[in-house]
Amino acid sequence: MKRSDHPRLNDSVIRTAALIGGTHGNERTGVTAIQRRLAGVAADAPGLPAPREAKSFRLDALFGNPRAIELNRRYVDFDLNRCFSSDGLADRDAPGYERQRAQVLNALLGPKGAADPAYQFTVDLHTTTANLGPTVIIREDEAMARIVAAAVQRDLPEVRIMSYLAEESDGGHDAPAGGGPGSANRPGDYPYVAEITPHGIEIEVGPVPQGVVRADVLGWTEAIINSIVATLDAWNHDEEIDVPDEITVYRYIGDSDFPRSRDGALAGMIHPERQDRDFEPLHPGDPLYLTFDGTVVPYDGPDGAVPVFVNEAAYYEKRAALTLAQAQHIATVLG
Ligand SMILES: [Zn+2]
Prior knowledge:
This protein has about 325 residues and is an alpha/beta fold. Helices cover about 20% and strands about 20% of the residues. The strands form 2 sheets. The protein has a 9-stranded mixed beta sheet with strand order 2-1-3-6-4-5-7-12-11. It has a 3-stranded antiparallel beta sheet with strand order 8-9-10, with no helix packed on it. The chain is globular. The structure holds zinc ion.
């Protein structure tokens, strides 16, 4: 497919894109990827390709949360990647470092929802302590992200695509929650950094501990970035982009919390048979949690749902032991 054939985006050229690392200050892979770009590293290394330069658009590399990066913490006052709902951005005097940083990023890159924002595409870099493998995350109704994600998967077949969907829930048990992982938000108005611009994608690679850089995780992250840059160049040049008609996405359907005591304290952990088994389907009755007093808690959600972000360190405070997703086959080109 090529840009001029796209039913919605045939004249949507990317002029300026943002590559953001360190949105979470203790996710050092993204920080390092930005540092390598800013340093102009041009040499390939085994498993670590040189950063690919954009030919048809400006690609600005920047740090999402400089103060948290300095402190090597996820955030100072509030999770920056939950600050970009329209309501949150409307409160310009909201207290806290990240609320104010969100205003700065929104003014620089957007503003969100503008007809002619300063940047048209955002790539936001993340890592997880969970055994997720190389992953990209898209908003499912973002037509350009679908094509970019499909092209990444064509270049790097091990990459999985996760998605969130702006759809009203009918309240049924299997209905999409309309949210992303570890977040409660209004359907259609997501609080993520990549939502500032009309088009965007998150890269999420794991497992890697917080505060740690691993060459393999950095290599995956940069290979995905390079694939995205090449695809956006092909898109701008109206070249043929070879992608399949359908992609498989893992769509968020909700979070599952750890066992808790009556006062809310952590009372259990991921069952040992489930640890590190992200994307392996769950069936009712499967061992899911093990309480600290030795009781197995079985899974009782929808049959065939897959767990992602299993035992992600940053989600303990969000009361999510894991996020549930459902495999969906969707058209690559959103008509
Ligand atoms: Zn992150």
